[in-house]
Amino acid sequence: METPWGQPSAPVAIGAVEGRDVAFIPRHGSKHQFPPHSVPYRANVWAMKELGVERVLGPSAVGSLQPNIKPGDFVVCDQLVDRTTGRPSTFYDGPETTHVSFADPYCPTVRRVAVEQAEALELPVHGRGTVVVIQGPRFSTRAESAYYSRQGWEVINMTQHPEAILARELEMCYANISLNTDYDVGVAGEIEPVTNEEVIRVFQENTGRLRQLLFRIVGALPEERDCPCATALANARFEV
Could you tell me which of 217, 219, 215 has the C-alpha nearest to residue 207? Predict the structure, then answer.
């Protein structure tokens, strides 16, 4: 697909899950060639909207900032903190000024279904959490990670911004299902610095559980959307 912001990360795969049409784009590309700061987020989200997608599931690997969130745990985030720089993060660069509410960045309906299905599968799941999004591709220093941990934020990631806000700007529901792969370096106690090898190892060990959860969520979503995401642009535009 072509979009006003170029091509998506990879060709869009179209299929069916639980009797529902589903589109899939690997955000990092088919060969993981796009690092977090270079992912074509606007092209990916725009392509989804053009295909008629109404709800987006954004699974991601995260690092834990709190001792109670262990490797292999799932976190269905309800808040995010953006610490990225320089990433295009809106579709609305003018001349029509658009201010979309983002107080609650994740769809409450999809979040609820995700938590319910994780519990039904008896997965270790945390029903809420704040993800701090860093620029990448490097991992945090110990000082940075310790700061994030002291704020009480639960997990750390490199892709949730601007993916979540772009979906909201196009009135699509968006939810994040985080798979925790490691303890970040600032968590209290003596731990080894996070490595890419360890992240990949834990993620691959839990890919089956993540896939099973995603399929269950798709099948359990209600037909109608009655959440605020569907009307996010109502009263969002400044008119003279």
Answer: 215
Q: Name the pairing type of β-strands 173-183 and 74-76.
A: antiparallel
Cβ(187)–Cβ(70) below 8 Å: no
User: How many CB atoms sit inside 10 A of residue 206's CB?
Assistant: 20
**Interatomic CA distance for residues 145 and 142, integer angstroms:** 5
Q: What is the DSSP string of 73-98?
A: -EEE--EEEEE--S----S--SSS-B
Amino acid at 159: T
**Structure-token match 């029903």, residue found:** 127
Reading the block at residue 120, the tokens are 């039904």
Residue 187 is classified by DSSP as S
190 or 171: which leads in pLDDT: 171
Q: Catalytic residues, which ones?
A: 182, 184
Q: Mind listing the pLDDT tens digit for each residue in 61-83?
A: 999 999 999 999 999 999 999 99
Q: Which residue has the tokens 């196009």?
A: 170
Sheet architecture: strand order including 155-157: 79-83, 130-134, 155-157, 55-64, 173-183, 74-76, 125-126
Q: Give the phi and the psi of residue 62 in degrees, each rounded to 5.
A: -135, 165
